[in-house]
Amino acid sequence: MESREDGKWEPSKPFLQLLIASPRGFCAGVERAIRIVELALAKFGAPVYVRHEIVHNRFVVDRLKSLGAVFIDDLAQAPAGAHVIFSAHGVAKSVAEDATTRALAWIDATCPLVSKVHGEAEHHHRAGRQIVLIGHRGHPEVEGTLGQLPPDAITLIETAEDAARFTPRDPERIAFISQTTLSVDDTAEIVAVLRRRFPQIRGPRRDDICYATTNRQEALKRIAGQSDAVLVLGAPNSSNSVRLVEVALRAGARGAQLIQSAADIAWAKLRDARVIGLTAGASAPDYLIDGVIAALRSRYDVDIREAQNVREAVIFNVPRSVAS
User: Fold this and answer.
1) CB distance 8 to 203 below 8 Å
2) Which one of the listed residues 10, 38, 141, 306 is annotated catalytic?
3) Is there a contact between 1 and 12 (Cβ–Cβ < 8 Å)?
4) Hey, CA dihedral for 132, 138, 142, 147, is it positive or negative?
5) DSSP characters for 264-322?
6) Max Cα separation, the chain?
7) Cα distance between the two ends of the chain
8) Which of 14, 131, 159, 313 could form a disulfide with 154 if both were Cys (CB 3.0 to 4.6 A apart)?
């Protein structure tokens, strides 16, 4: 029992240890994409059109809408001469060509690490290699990467089973690339199958999975095994956020929830939890983390410990068209 200011007694809150993974939340590619929209609005005025979600987070999208951004699914929805921004996930070459044909002033907000994968695909294609893309069918980044080359140039592989069944045209002339937001462990398993079957396969000089995805997964692994439950802030269509839930469970968390905000917390599933882990996908803003902490404090006597894995200092420049 504890005393309130009015002198009455009320039950004390149960104790909760909150383990917060670090790094978490926005990565440099997401910050750059959002900044591009903000700068375009400041320079050209509203409306500025954005093809698909600039990043996978409805709170970010809604804020940009309030500033004058108009999100569209098809370039035909933008009038000739309009400024159109391509999302951080990247687009097929045909999209940029269509934008030019429609006399749209387009700005590319593709994450530089995704552009790196596009460059790798181009390099292998010029060298005459068949390309394997490790990724999830239907994800915007995968669609954009597939669209960099002719339809038969890239084969999509989603699982280790796919890798075991894959039959290349020439086993001596193949290469692999990957989506940047995958599970590090799952991708390593697929790559191991490919390398075992095709020892001559070419891969990237550095892992295609982006530093932010890797860092967030590794930071979460440090706390998941100590956690009765893990809360992951992110959107259901955010690949890196969904992967964090999988990572938490594999690393020993007894339960894990993907939530878009504190309002989505399934409190009944936390009833017996005494240690909760907390992290956020690369498209989730910090204030959503703050909201979850506040919600937990309203129900628990919270002791917070931050588990620092690495410090991120990556900054990506914005295009000159909006920088000046």
Assistant:
1) no
2) 141
3) yes
4) positive
5) G--GGGGTT-SEEEEEE-TT--HHHHHHHHHHHHTTSEEEEEEEE--------PPPHHH
6) 81
7) 60
8) 131
Both tokens of 257, joined, read 């929830």
Q: What is the pLDDT of residues 218-255, one digit of tens each?
A: 999 999 999 999 999 999 999 999 999 999 999 999 99
Phi, psi of 227 (to 5 degrees): -105, 135
User: How far, in whole angstroms, is CA 249 from its chain's centroid?
Assistant: 18
**The pLDDT value given to residue 206:** 79
309 pLDDT tier (thresholds 50, 70, 90): confident
Measured CA to CA in angstroms, residue 303 lies from 20, 52, 106, 299 at distances of 11, 40, 48, 12
For the chain, how many helices (H) and strands (E)? Answer: 11, 14
Closest CA to 177 of 147, 220, 133: 133
Identify the helix (H) or strand (E) that includes residue 324: none
Per-residue pLDDT tens over the stretch 54-109: 999 999 999 999 999 999 999 999 999 999 999 999 999 999 999 999 999 999 99
Q: Contact 157/179 with Cβ under 8 angstroms?
A: no
User: Is 141 assigned a catalytic role?
Assistant: yes
Residue 313's alpha-carbon distances to 28, 217, 280, 282, in angstroms, are 9, 17, 18, 14
d(CA 313, CA 316): 10
User: Rounded to whole angstroms, how far apart are CA atoms 228 and 88?
Assistant: 34
Q: Specify the residue for token string 């439950």.
A: 229
Backbone angles phi, psi at 90, to 5 degrees: 90, 160
What residues contact 313, with CB distance under 8 A and at least 6 apart?
none
